[in-house]
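User: I'm putting together notes for a lab meeting next week and I want to include a structural view of one of the chains we've been expressing. I don't have a solved structure, so I'd like a prediction I can at least talk through. The sequence is below, exactly as it appears in our construct file.
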Amino acid sequence: MLLALCCGLAACASYPERTAEAYGAFESGRLEDAARLYADPKTTDSEFLGGAEAGSVALAAGDWDGALKHLHQAAASVKEYEDRALVSPTSAGESLLTWTVNEGMAGYRGEGFERVMVHACLGLAYLGKGLLDDVGVEARLSNKLLESEEALYEKQYAAGGLGHLLSALVYELQGQPDNAYIDYKRMLEKQVGVRFAGRAALRLSRQLNLDDEYDHWKELHGEDVERPDGAASIVVIAGVGAGPYKQEITIPIPTPTGILQWSVPSLVGRPQQIQALELGLGQGERVRTDVIEDVFNVTKQNLDDRIAWLAAKSAVRAFLKRELTQRLHKENPLLGAIAGTVYTLVTEHADLRTWQTLPNTWQAARAFVAPGEHDLQLSAEGGESRFLGRYRFARGETVFIFARTFGGRLAAHVIGGERLDLPIAAASPNPELPAASTGAAPGAPSPLPGPVP
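Assistant: Thanks for the context. Below is the predicted structure for the 453-residue chain, given as structure tokens.
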């Protein structure tokens, strides 16, 4: 029975091996193929990862409904666990001590930071549909889950930038600058998206007549810029680069009474071709994106905080399996020791499952332009450049550009504004990769609420 189990486990591919075809399709810009492969339960063998991976691919493609469907699947698969974590962070920690023959055999609930990201990505998908109340709900839940992780490990991560940014933007669109100001200040306290949040804090403290605070921000971030009368706002939110993957650290230790094998995962960063994006507004004006969430660093910190628990579980299993080997040896000196040793070597491996289609960083930029007609160009430093089209912006309107890079490729989707043209230049050189798209057809109204002052 032990040898049969060993053969079965040995035939099981690791998560990076099982998802290689799907990730290859994503990396090459074949987003439709990637979403289909990730949505197939056989690819990930995880309801959480199947929804998370397919959802982030749909986001990259500008398929807001598809993203909502898949990401809600991921969130629903861990809802009971999230509810416990929000009530008591220690209950989430206790579940990490669930004992299994092999870590990869347990149901995957996602790393803590991955669950935070699911709700932030849901917020982005709702933003694509112009459903601001839902954006706010997901942004706040994302931040609450992050606070739960911080309470569990008794530390503060330099994270939450995407959630706080989405929350602040929604408050601004809903005419609540005071609440938006609080979120921007939280970003500054955590030192995430400092350039973006610093300029926003400067602008809003001036708008709210908080003279002392305005002077403080001016000292840190310089003078507030002058904006055109009735200025429209263009906000770029971009997932830049390729997220990390897990590899195994395994140490087999021969002893006189059998093999001890200790195995834990480690996080590996991928080479990053693109560092930032630039938004061109015509007449030479350009705005560069700022990092608001360093996905690799936060994911690594979050995994490092779990390593002690994972290592302890691996060590206990190693000793139990050695005891099993000794017992089998006593019952059958020839086959028993062999079966026990093979069982230990095959079953004691790290869990390499992780959400691979997350970006390396989330970045953002904001520009204020005079109402009227503007050409938009988005460029990836070290990668593609896309002409997004000519748009008409109303007074006080806020327009969003959601962008995603993979390899040197760039996909971009404009949400809001009135598209005035469909230029050939916007077509993608890769037929599978979506060209610059818009949330509204030419001449159609914006999917977002009307202009705000």
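A couple of points you could mention at the meeting. The mean pLDDT is 82. The chain has one domain: 2-438.

User: Perfect, that's what I needed.
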